[in-house]
């Protein structure tokens, strides 16, 4: 990779401190993409982490572990490592229930973060970072989260130069991308947390390149409170997600509704054949009785019926009322449905598959580009923190040479997208939206704003837009806009070539 070659070449030309930072950048380039699951406290982050991994390993109840950053990564042996602030490590086994132990048996104030290694196929392509919540009232938890995500801003020395904090510089548990979890109301601290998110060791803010959001607990939305929902919970969640997307963009590529609790139960083995049998018993109840029971959790668990109260409580903890109602409806439609098919129906109802597909499109398909862009930001920050003007200039010149090469087009496109999304380059609204569309999608049809269109139409449109952006770069743009326009022109031209050769 070009960025890796740049780091190797520069290591002998910079200070030992900067060279050590470059070595960490090289390690990160060779590792899976690191995705932080972030959001306000009690937004259901850990539940979503378990669903994504497909195993219930992250504690969801308030406890020691939920106050710490936990990195879930692939390993050949399942184990937990406590990493202390002084660099020491202590290995723990997973608890009997397969989760990280609720109590660590150490002074939590001396803990930096937790590393959890799992023999899990999902983690071979993506490291998932669970965070305590940036809206937590626990100041120590917030501070640890911000530092380990690289969100701690650069400290200023007396002479006014930037100096990266040790945790951020070493990128011990940094992230190149973020999955941000919101609930019904997007609040000011959600915006602040996204604004503060930075990747690797440099101030690379969240944007459509490296961030998507999910509206979790979609089943708790009152459909009557959302205009146009027609009494449908999922339709209400979709409408609300679209509204939140307009609020959070361009910080995120998209906002998708999801029901993390149902996703976790269906995907991590929490839903059992015994649960399916209990749901069959509920499906046999008189419809009026069942509809009354489903009014509230209290009525559902306290109503007198043949299904034991404890069993109903277990179903509620795994599926909540929406999941129970969905499962009963599926059983009534297909009385012979198997437990496995019922589990798949619940998984479909959770919205998790759409989230995974978006993760694949936004993150997985361009993981190398995201990591390379984050690596360049890290290299720049490390050189800037060195305090040596000569070193800073050498790194700057090397990056400029790299970005001038044709194979660096994806990096230039991600850089252009970041500049426009952050407002660093001011563009007319319609052109900003076009840049965001071209840079935020991996599918050519989506990039061109013509999903599903035939190849001749895509090719013609790509060529037309390539010509327009070249003209804009030469005759109508400011110098900053021109730089972006040349990159967009090149993107359209490459799309035209690709469509023609397909």
Task: Explain what this protein looks like in three dimensions.
The chain is 52% helix and 11% strand. It is built from 21 helices and eleven strands. A nine-stranded mixed sheet has the order 4-3-5-2-6-1-9-10-11. A two-stranded antiparallel sheet has the order 7-8. Strand 10 (211-215), helix 7 (233-248) and strand 11 form a beta-alpha-beta unit. Helix 2 runs antiparallel to helix 15, helix 3 packs parallel to helix 8 (260-267) and helix 9 (273-283) crosses helix 13.
Describe the secondary-structure layout.
Layout: H1 2-10, H2 16-29, E1 33-39, H3 45-53, E2 70-74, E3 79-84, E4 89-92, E5 111-118, E6 126-130, H4 139-148, E7 155-156, E8 162-163, H5 166-170, E9 177-182, H6 188-196, E10 211-215, H7 233-248, E11 255-257, H8 260-267, H9 273-283, H10 287-293, H11 297-302, H12 309-333, H13 339-350, H14 352-362, H15 367-385, H16 389-403, H17 409-422, H18 429-440, H19 444-447, H20 455-475, H21 479-501
Parallel strand pairs: 1-6, 1-9, 2-5, 9-10, 10-11
Antiparallel strand pairs: 2-6, 3-4, 3-5, 7-8
Helix pairs in contact: 1-2, 1-16, 2-15, 3-8, 8-12, 8-13, 9-12, 9-13, 12-13, 15-16, 15-17, 17-18, 17-21, 20-21
Beta-strand portion reads 5-15%
Question: What gross morphology would you assign?
Answer: globular
Terminal CA distance reads 26 Å
Helix count from the secondary structure assignment: 21
Contiguous low-pLDDT stretches (5 residues minimum) are 150-173, 198-203
Mean pLDDT: 82
Radius of gyration: 25 Å
Main sheet record: 9 strands, mixed
């Amino acid at each position: 990779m070009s960025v890796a070659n740049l780091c190797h070449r520069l290591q002998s030309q910079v200070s030992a401190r900067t060279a050590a930072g470059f070595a960490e950048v090289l390690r990160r380039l060779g590792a899976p993409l690191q995705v932080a699951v972030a959001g306000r406290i009690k937004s259901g982050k850990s539940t979503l982490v378990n669903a994504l991994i497909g195993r219930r390993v992250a504690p969801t109840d308030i406890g020691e572990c939920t106050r710490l950053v936990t990195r879930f990564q692939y390993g050949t042996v399942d184990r937990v490592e406590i990493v202390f602030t002084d660099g020491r490590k202590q290995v723990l086994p997973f608890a009997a229930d397969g989760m990280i132990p609720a109590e660590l048996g150490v002074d939590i104030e001396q803990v930096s973060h937790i590393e959890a290694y799992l023999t899990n196929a999902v983690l071979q392509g993506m490291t998932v970072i669970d965070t305590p919540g940036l809206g937590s009232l626990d100041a120590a938890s917030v501070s640890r989260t911000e530092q380990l995500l690289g969100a701690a801003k650069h400290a200023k020395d007396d002479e006014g130069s930037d100096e990266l904090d040790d945790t951020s510089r070493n990128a011990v548990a940094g992230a190149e991308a973020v999955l941000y979890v919101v609930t019904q109301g997007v609040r000011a601290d959600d915006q602040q947390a996204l604004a503060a998110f930075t990747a690797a060791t440099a101030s690379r803010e969240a944007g459509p390149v490296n961030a998507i959001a999910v509206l979790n607990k979609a089943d708790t939305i009152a459909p009557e409170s959302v205009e146009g929902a027609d009494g449908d919970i999922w339709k209400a969640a979709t409408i609300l997600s679209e509204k939140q997307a307009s609020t959070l963009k361009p910080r995120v590529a998209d906002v998708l509704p999801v029901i993390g609790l149902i996703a976790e139960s269906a995907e991590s083995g929490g839903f059992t054949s015994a649960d399916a049998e209990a749901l069959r018993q509920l499906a046999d109840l008189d419809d009026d009785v069942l509809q009354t029971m489903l009014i509230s959790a209290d009525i559902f668990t306290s109503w007198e019926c043949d299904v034991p109260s404890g069993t109903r409580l277990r179903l509620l903890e795994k599926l909540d009322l929406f999941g129970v109602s969905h499962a009963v409806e599926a059983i009534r439609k297909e009385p012979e449905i198997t437990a496995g098919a019922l589990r798949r129906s619940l998984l479909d109802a959770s919205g998790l598959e759409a989230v995974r597909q978006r993760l694949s499109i936004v993150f997985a398909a361009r993981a190398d580009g995201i990591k390379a862009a984050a690596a360049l930001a890290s290299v720049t920050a490390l050189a800037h923190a060195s305090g040596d003007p000569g070193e800073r200039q050498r790194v700057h010149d090397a990056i400029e040479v790299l970005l001038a090469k044709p194979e660096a087009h994806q990096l230039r496109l991600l850089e252009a997208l970041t500049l426009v999304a952050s407002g660093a380059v001011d563009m007319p609204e319609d052109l900003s939206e076009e840049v965001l569309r071209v840079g935020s999608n991996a599918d050519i049809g989506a990039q061109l704003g013509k999903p599903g269109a035939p190849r001749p139409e895509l090719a013609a449109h790509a060529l037309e837009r390539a010509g327009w952006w070249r003209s804009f770069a030469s005759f109508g743009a400011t110098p900053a806009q021109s730089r972006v326009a040349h990159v967009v022109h090149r993107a359209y031209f490459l799309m035209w070539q690709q469509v023609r050769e397909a």
